[in-house]
Amino acid sequence: MRVIAKRSTVLMTAAVLGLVLAIGFAQKPVAAQSSDQKVEQAFKNIKALNGQPADMLNPTMVFFEASLGVGCPFCHDDDANKRDIDSKPQKLIARQMIEMVNSVNKTTFHGARQVTCFTCHQGRSTPIGVPNVTNSPLPPALGEDYIASLPPPPAVPAAVTVNQVIDKYVAALGNVQQVASLDAVGTVTQRRPGRDFPSQQIEIFSKAPGMGLTVTHAGQNDNLLSYGATAGWARAGQTAPRDLRKAEADGAMLEDPYNLPAHLKQMLLEPKMDRPERIRGGRDVYVITAKTRNLPKVQAYFEKETGMLARLVYYNDTVFGQYPTQIEYRDYRDVGGRKVPYQWVISQTRNREFTYAMQTVKAAAIDDVKFAKPSASSR
What we know:
379 residues; Photosynthetic Reaction Center, subunit C, domain 2; outer membrane lipoprotein receptor (LolB), chain A; 10 helices; 30% strand
């Protein structure tokens, strides 16, 4: 089921949404429907539900409406007297989706009705194909009337450029080039709903333009993660070090808040201004959407007023879809004339959230050897 659901995230989006529209809904001028009539005997232009009882058509339409949060005109002609004609592409898509859902249930669940429109749509006309990070609610499923009542989304700013936004961010930080190497000591605390974890001591070494090392003290062992300009490595306790996956290395670079100003502009490929948003705390932000060499999507949120980076979200790609990791920055303080965050929160899928809280952050001269991958024999 998981494979099919993932493979059909986009298809199911259209699919179950197509389900709503799958049937030509104009009734023939008959006085009444007998319980043994078939759908095609009582209604016109039936192509996907042939052989089903005619008495089931109206309840089926109600189920489609409830599953997608829409009404009849979403798939059928706006003229109630022409509901049987194929005037909208959604109805054609719906027929394909009915066949797909029937095939899924037949081949995967031995004919049992396990997958329905609601399986993917959950009351939305377009299914959600990307997992949400913890503490980030999904869009409400309140139907098409609610969606139509919302104000139009803000336009992409035409007078503001990507370079202007990033340059303002770097300028707002202060002496980034003069304070290019930092040593931070603090704690990281993992939280999951209903479960508490003890805080762990952590130390972060960052050296511009592109080297970082995070040391997490886990009991008697240290877990290490390091990145460089082109690659990275990790070691868990006394195990042999391993190379980071390419996307993992890009993620490590984006998660280092101290080195980010030095390489953000270089990391973001094909950046463009996106629609501005209002995020937690009522802050209005500019949004830049881009990708990196190994990550399909990155979104950076900069406060309009101060220029500071408030949030960054990057997406990992998989065989079946993408999933996000979100970083929110808090408690900026001055270190040697440069503003740095003393706290940030990394929210993942799987209901995992990590709060980083630094006790000290200081400028420090760091030798490049600090970031070198240890040999297996050094365990």
